[in-house]
Design a protein that fits this description.
The complex is a heterodimer of chains A (86) and B (159). Chain A is mainly α and 86 residues long. Helices cover 52% and strands 5% of the residues of chain A. The relative contact order of chain A is 0.18. Classes of the chains: A mainly alpha (86), B mainly alpha (159).
């Protein structure tokens, strides 16, 4: 089985989504049942979540999982919403 | 997963300090016992000199062991139910690395004990006291190693 690339990191929009909702790391951590530091690790890309945790976070925000996590870098939210060059 | 996950209370300690404590906790005790044994058996230093220096080193390393064990034991010793998935990964990797380090250090120590006395042509007398120190050191280090590995590895948090 090929080993995963050591530099592979799943991108996410956790910090943006949390800020939009005025939510602290502790509140999000309590909602999905992890330590608040784990939210910090996720936001910085230092830790890749399990599928279970990713789905739990997606369910908490009421969004599809691919809107929050992606193997490729996300475009800025404003560009994705208001870009005139679609 | 339960909602009450353990917080790493001492994560705020700067990494430099955590790493220094980890090194002193793991290396300090065997180094102190080794120096003390050499001073007593080979150099023939009077007990007060070797004893006081050795005792100071041993007490310092015991303090570092206690400190590192206290502030990381909740993560390194906790059962799965009290940890989230990231903390479980950290703990499990720390135990694997601790095993590797312990086996490696034990092998090196045994080789040195077998080779060095012959190379310097001075027999090392293994008295009950000396063996007792080494066994105590092995027990203490095996207890503190997982906590020391976690303390060494964890990055500083931005917030």
């Amino acid at each position: 089985m090929p080993a995963p690339r050591p530099d592979f990191s799943i991108q996410n929009r956790l910090a943006v989504l949390r800020a939009e909702r005025g939510m602290s790391r502790q509140e999000l951590a309590d909602a999905v049942g992890v330590n608040y530091q784990t939210i910090g690790y996720l936001e910085r890309g230092d830790y890749n979540p399990s599928l279970a945790l990713a789905f739990q976070i997606a369910a908490h925000f009421g969004m599809p999982i691919e809107a929050i996590f992606s193997p490729q870098p996300f475009a800025p939210m404003s560009a994705a919403l208001y870009s005139t060059t679609r | 997963m339960t909602s009450a996950k353990l917080a790493s209370a001492d994560i705020e300690l700067p990494r430099r300090i955590r790493r220094s404590l980890a090194v002193v906790a793991v290396v300090g005790y065997p180094a102190a016992v080794f120096c003390w044994t050499i001073a007593q058996t080979w150099l023939g230093l009077a007990p007060p000199v070797g004893g006081i220096a050795g005792l100071a080193l041993i007490l310092g390393s015991l303090f570092a062991m206690w400190r590192i064990y206290a502030f990381r034991s909740h993560l390194a010793q906790a059962p799965d139910a009290q940890l989230d998935e990231r903390q479980v990964q950290i703990r499990d990797r720390a135990y694997l690395d601790s095993y590797r380090i312990f086996v490696g250090v034990t092998l090196v120590a045994l080789v040195l004990l077998g080779l060095v006395p012959g190379m310097v042509d001075k027999p090392l007398t293994l008295t009950f006291d000396v063996v007792n120190w080494f066994v105590m050191g092995a027990v203490l280090i095996s207890l503190v190693l997982p906590s020391a590995v976690v303390a060494w590895r964890e990055p500083d948090l931005a917030d």
